[in-house]
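Q: Convert this sequence to structure tokens.
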Amino acid sequence: MTAAVPAVDAAVTDVTAQVAARYARGATIAAVVIAGCWHFGFDLPSTVTNWSVYRWPWLAVAAWLAYLVVGTVGAVPLLTGTVRRSVAWLLAGAALGSAAAVLVACPPGTLDTPANWATGSVGWLAVIVLWRRPLADLVAFLLANALLMLTVLVVTDALDRITFARYVMVVLGSVTLQLGYSVGTRGFDTAARWAAENSTRRAEALARRTAIEVVALARAERYQTLRLSTAPILADLAAGADPADPGLRHRCAVGAARLRRLIAETDDTPEPLLHEVRACADVAERRGVMVSLHAVGTLPVPPVAVRRALTEAPIEVLSGARTYARVTVVGSGTGVVLSVVADAPEVVVHHHPDVVVDQHREDGRIWIETRWPAR
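A:
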């Protein structure tokens, strides 16, 4: 279970990154669309309709074109890659210059009119060029824009009580929209990351709980199998059965082989059936029986219940073998045949719906074969 934690953490990181990237992509496109629509839908008509209002109309046009160039240069890398900090602030400086140009081109008293469109629009330009920068960079830009506006008003001697009130209104209005949008998109990005991480953590917890339940169920099933195999033998011994009795010794050998098989079932091996057969043969070898084991072909991986049915009869033969036993496992990739030849007494066959069992006895030897799938 603990080995799966790094993989789960990697999955969490990957899913979180994908969700965050999707949200960021949508917010980025929206910012570019807002800036573009604002510039063409408001700034351009304001420049045309106020042509006669400007002191220097061509300066306003140059500022509008500079705004377009800065927005394009900032938007294209934003949608396709990462803008470096130096380039971002270079574009931000150009945006401030275009805003100052429009402010200079406007006559006094037009600060809060459509003619002075750059004071509010330049913030959307900053949202684009500083999109991948910390929020503090955008705040610094908006403060710089506000100070620049105030400086131009002072230098041109256009600052009075009414103009200052209009200045405050324009600054607060533009900052609220642009800073609010940036904060909101970052909030959505944080919420998306949290939702992705929370969803993945819940899936991780569910997977852990399911794995624990599966392990607990498998342990309970193995314990029940072990109890059914060994409890009667232990009860007979406790009741005073003679350990020298051949029948009891055979039952003990069968129980020991089943226990070894049960332990082998929990091992992680590429060929579990062959591994379990070796465990069963090991019990016979411990009694002094000479066991030869041969495996041929590609062995499949049958379910646990099928592997138990395949090895049940061979366990009986190996447990009763006196001097020798030959075990052969033949696999075809989709099926398997397990056969045992030994000098052992006849065994009782336990039938399974998916396994065929054949046996033959001759000259004191027994040959038994189990086959899966049943044909």
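The chain is about 65% helix and 10% strand.
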